[in-house]
Specification:
mainly alpha; 2 domains
């Protein structure tokens, strides 16, 4: 029981720290009410996922032409906050979120014209590690050159060459396009390797093989620091 309580406390601390970072990263770009609405959405849908899996979240909050133009700036600001020092973060906005939800119903969890279906975290360690590695690799690529959306779109349009299962293909497509926050179980190891390899080859074309190798290696090393990697080593996906 003590171990379970410690794990829950660690999870709560991680979510609180990430919530502060999301608040800090978004604050320069949104007026207060829209900022808290975006935080409510993050709390409801994305707080349980990898901190750097920002693609779907950004798709949901950067919906106007002005915001789409600065999407990469918002993404960069979020990453700087998420991976920067704690003392650079704003205070935890949980109270503001709760107040906002009390006056707006469920807020971001259920409203908004383009919100995707919520998916709980996969129970399969292999899927969790693949999702984490893929998202972190594309996030690192985006830092060098903002081509992550292009990579996702290319892979999406070529899924029929990779996946034979129709329902799985549909869900993977929704995940790639940010319509689903999390990836469901269903992909086998060979399919995961193929999708990751497609992203790697495209990164090589834009950034060069040396840089792509370096970023993929960095993504693998990052994933190896996560507890889930003890159940499924990230290097099995290479």
């Amino acid at each position: 029981m003590d171990s379970d309580n410690s794990s829950l406390e660690a999870l709560d601390a991680r979510v609180a720290r990430n919530r502060r970072a999301i608040y800090t990263g978004l604050k320069p770009f949104f007026p207060e009410d829209e900022l808290i609405a975006a935080l409510s959405l993050w709390q409801a849908r994305y707080s349980g996922g990898p901190a750097y899996a920002l693609h779907g979240f950004l798709n949901e909050i950067c919906t106007t032409p002005p915001l789409r133009k600065i999407r990469n700036d918002v993404h960069r600001s979020l990453r700087q906050a998420l991976f920067g020092p704690d003392n650079a973060l704003e205070s935890d906005p949980l109270l503001q979120i709760e107040r906002w939800k009390s006056t707006h119903g469920n807020g971001g969890a259920s409203s908004g014209g383009n919100l995707g279906a919520r998916h709980s975290a996969s129970s399969n360690p292999k899927t969790q590690v693949f999702e984490s590695l893929f998202e972190h690799f594309l996030s690192l690529v985006d830092e060098k050159q903002p081509i992550g959306l292009h990579l996702r779109s290319y892979i999406d349009t070529h899924l029929e060459k990779v996946l034979s299962n129709g329902p799985v293909s549909v869900q993977v497509s929704r995940w790639l396009r940010g319509k689903d926050a999390r990836l469901d179980d269903g992909l086998d190891l060979a399919e995961m390797r193929t999708i990751l390899h497609m992203a790697y080859v495209l990164a090589c074309e834009y950034l060069g093989p040396a840089m792509a190798d370096s970023l993929l290696s960095e993504a693998v090393q990052h994933c190896e620091l996560q507890a889930i990697s003890r159940l499924f080593p990230p290097r099995k996906l290479l």
